[in-house]
Amino acid sequence: MDELWDKILDIGQRILNGGNITRKEAEDLGKCSESDVFLLCSFANKIREKFNGSKVDLCSVINAKSGGCPEDCAFCSQSAHHHTNVKCYPLIDEDKIVETAIKREKAGAKHCDICTSGLGYTGNEKNFKIILNAFRRMKANTNLKLCACLGTLTMDAAQQLADAGVERYNHNLETARSFYPNIVSTHGYDERIDTIRYAKKAGMEVCSGMIMGMGETMNQRIEHAFLLKELDVDAVPLNVLNPVKGTRLENAKPLAPIEIIKTFAIMRFIFPDKNLRFAGGREKNLKSLQPLGFIAGINGMLIGDYLTTEGQAVNKDFQMLNDLNLTY
Quick one: pLDDT at residue 308? Predict the structure, then answer.
């Protein structure tokens, strides 16, 4: 136990001094338990404070096209392979997208993400042109940082989004390459990596993270994190599985809250200067321990409702941040 304690102190101080953690060291930190987890969180909090300050980045998502997706992602309530109670609808009206974005800004969001179900776009689709125009209008009528989550892209589609004012592209790889075949069979891992590279080449930031709690090991979460580090993504959303009845993962065993907090802290050690975001599943999985996510190094948060599930009331999120003396 003392050896692990000393290792946390050594690695934590090295990162605060501008150094890095190795994958083997991160895996060693994954063995932390009991009070060692809180020492880990203490260093993660100092690392977050040094490299990112005390401001929490708030974003909001608009589910602009829901359900009927031909892909078979095991966790997803919008997959046509599953039988869930999720609302299915085609792309919503362009005016409605813009009106919703304006409301989200008034509610406190700094970023707004248009998300659609489906594999992705080549850049020639009618719906894609509608989305582009909605982004142009959002740019003209709000001060929001514009984000998109539209699935896989071609280089042409990525460039069109950037030209329309989209500053960040969200494209989660979901899980480690070694675990991915257990989750998705209808599209490949490299196809998703290509989209990240296209988005960065077009000049957009990339938001790409993970869903934890799907049956992967801690070492696989770390494997995934080091790939994201290699790809130099700008923001890492950390989702925790919220099992939906009717999906393949409806009976997944939930992670212990402390396991989630420990994972957050290790992610901060791996990504000292990146935006680590609280994303889906935090309310159900962490419950009263949500504030510990920020102590473990989180510095961003999705507010409001998620794609197909309800989020915590925004005023409760703001109260939590105020109580932690964090700004937004």
Answer: 66
Per-10-residue mean pLDDT of the chain, 328 residues long, equals 88 98 98 95 98 94 93 93 90 96 91 95 97 97 96 98 98 97 96 98 98 98 98 97 94 96 98 95 93 97 76 88 95
Query: CATH number, domain at 140?
Result: 3.20.20.70
**Domain membership of residue 288 as a residue range:** 52-323
CB of 132 within 8 A of CB of 157?
Answer: no
Q: Which residues contact 100 (CB under 8 A, 6 or more apart)?
A: 62
Residue ranges of the binding site for [4Fe-4S] cluster: 69, 73, 76
Please name the residues in contact with 255: beta carbons below 8 A apart, sequence gap of 6 or more.
212, 213, 240, 241, 285
CA distance linking residue 3 with residue 149, whole number of Å: 43
For residue 270, is it within any domain?
yes
Annotated binding site for [2Fe-2S] cluster: 147, 207, 277
Is 18 contained in some domain? no
What's residue 215's pLDDT? 97
The residues that bridge with 302 in the sheet, in sequence order, are 59
pLDDT reported for residue 314: 87
Give this prediction's pTM: 0.94
Domain presence at residue 246: yes
Query: Is residue 197 assigned to a domain?
Result: yes
Q: How many domains does the chain have?
A: 1
249 to each of 68, 107, 309, how far by Cα in Å?
18, 33, 16
Residues comprising the binding site?
69, 73, 76, 147, 207, 277
Q: Which residues pair with 278 in a beta bridge?
A: 238, 301
